[in-house]
Amino acid sequence: MPHAAITGWGKAVPERILTNADLEKMVETSDEWITSRTGIRERRVVGQHETTTSLATSAARMALERAGRTPDELDLVVVATATPDDFLVSEACLVQGELGGTAGAFDVGAACAGFVSALSVGSQFVNAGVYKRVLVVGVDTLTRYVDFTDRSTCVLFGDGAGAVVIEATEEKRGLLSTVLGADGAGHKHLFVPGWGALVPESAGLFPEYRPYLQMNGSQVYRFAVQVMGDSAAESVHKAGLTFGDIDMLIPHQANLRIIDAAARRLELPREKVWVNIDRYGNTSAASVPIALCEAADSGALHEGDNVVLVAFGAGLAWAAGVVRWGTAGVEPPCCQARERTTAGVTTGEESDE
Ligand code: ACO
Q1: pLDDT digit string (tens) for 185-217?
Q2: Which residues on adjacent β-strands are paired with residue 161?
Q3: Model pTM score
Q4: What pLDDT digit, counting tens, does each position of 70-83 carry?
Q5: Strand 160-169 relative to strand 16-19, pairing
Q6: Domain 1-353: top CATH class
Q7: Four-point Cα dihedral 144, 165, 65, 294, nearest 10
Q8: pLDDT confidence of 343, banded at 50, 70, 90?
Q9: How confident is the model over 151-169, as pLDDT tens digits?
Q10: Pick the catalytic residue: 3, 20, 93, 112?
Q11: How far is CA 214 from CA 12, 176, 202, in A?
Q12: Half-sphere exposure of residue 147, counting CA atoms within 13 Å on the CB side?
């Protein structure tokens, strides 16, 4: 069975930084409250000319460049998002349209658990031998749906995108295990009333009605602490590994206390946990791939490392998996292959000369 190695990674965040000090001027809150309860110091917020598609496309281009691939080499584009730019057209089609090529394109909706879910979907196309090369993107612009007069939610979220290219290899690389779960009965603990086809009656009665994210923070917190630890641990066991085999935990960045609880469950010290919540807040489906991209760029991930990805979010849904890092056995990009060929072997062109 082919495996699906991660060969390229990229990220994009909006230019505008919204600090805790900025929020202190907007709602009754304090830097002390936000940092001590969540670990967030600042977040990125989309400006007028930044969109879900522009962020996703930038991250995707970076991932393709790192992989040494062009859009027309992709077989499939899968985008995880809860904030597509269009209701009818999938975000994946919008991104594919910007990139070019004719790859298949569709979205996966699992809110903050979306990227890990989409990675599992994309990997299975590769595992099944159906496709060789898939672009997986996690992107969200949740601040468009955040009420900036509601201090219980507006301090938590930021915008961004992260992307990976996965490619077929015979070596054991990429996603080794997948754990997906949901508690749909709890969906009202975190949702955006009136943003779907089901328009609440109140929308018609009250013209001032606005579709903003609503959250029962303490319920979501309890749920998150439970499922982040449980699903991460299950993904390790399912991969046939023990906690001692894990080199890095890359968790969804929603709350530092939730991240710490997941790390404790896997018996991992802080240096093996990737944390960037202080700079980005909760970027929903983008949080895991942005963190993955930063970990890879920093040199913290090495060929053969076992990396746990775990996320939870609206749904209520969760997703976890162990990725074996590295590109062993992946067919090299054609330009590199050409370089390798020309380095040691006389090409036809040269022998003509
Ligand atoms: N500044 C100051 N005070 C605040 C703020 C704020 N920004 N927000 C809430 N408070 C107040 C509350 O009103 C409450 O006051 P009260 O006791 O007088 O009623 C007090 O602080 C304590 O509130 P708690 O809810 O008990 O605070 P808690 O320690 O639980 O932290 C938090 C709240 C940070 C929201 C936490 O519950 C949490 O992180 N929950 C998970 C949320 C989450 O991760 N959601 C995203 C899911 S991912 C997705 O799919 C989008």
Answers
A1: 999 888 888 777 776 566 565 555 668 998 988
A2: 12, 139
A3: 0.92
A4: 999 999 999 999 99
A5: unpaired
A6: alpha beta
A7: 60
A8: very low
A9: 999 999 999 999 999 999 9
A10: 112
A11: 26, 35, 15
A12: 15
Q: Report the alpha-carbon distance of residue 287 to residue 291 in Å, rounded.
A: 6
What residue spans define the domains of the chain? 1-353
Of the residues 20, 93, 252, 255, only one is catalytic, namely 252
* Beta-strand relationship, 133-140 and 160-169: antiparallel
In testing the pocket of ligand 1, which one of 31, 81, 145, 152 has its CB within 8 Å of the most ligand atoms?
A: 152
Dist. CA 235 → ligand 1 center (Å)? 29
Q: What is the pLDDT of residues 101-140, one digit of tens each?
A: 999 999 999 999 999 999 999 999 999 999 999 999 999 9
For ligand 1, whether the C-beta of 111 sits within 6 Å is yes
